[in-house]
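If you are new to this repository, start here. Below is one unmodified record pulled from the training split, so you can see the exact layout before writing a loader.
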Amino acid sequence: MKNFKAKSFAERLDTAAKAKQNNLKKFEQRPSADDPAQLERQAARTAAAEVRKARAAKREEEKAAQKLRMAAEEAERAAEKLREAALAVEREAALEKERKAARDERYAARKLRK
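And here is the target side for that same chain:
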């Protein structure tokens, strides 16, 4: 087993300073904002964002159109139900007239027999 040797304070400071220097070098090596490759990547990202926005707008437009179609279909179904209800009321009124006529006829026949 190796002997564990604790680093001294000076060694730790030196290691931290080297790490800072390495980070600074990485930062300095980074391409600038006016670098042609950087500008090309930025343009590509902007174009991709525009395409995404266009697709999102198209999806929202399709959703709105779908909602309108659904509302129109619902209105059509409601109108059909109203027509059916009106026909049912009309049929019931006709049946009631027939029943009343039959009842009146029976009443009149009874009156004649007496």
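Two things worth knowing about this chain: The chain has a mean pLDDT of 91. Residues 33-113 form one domain.
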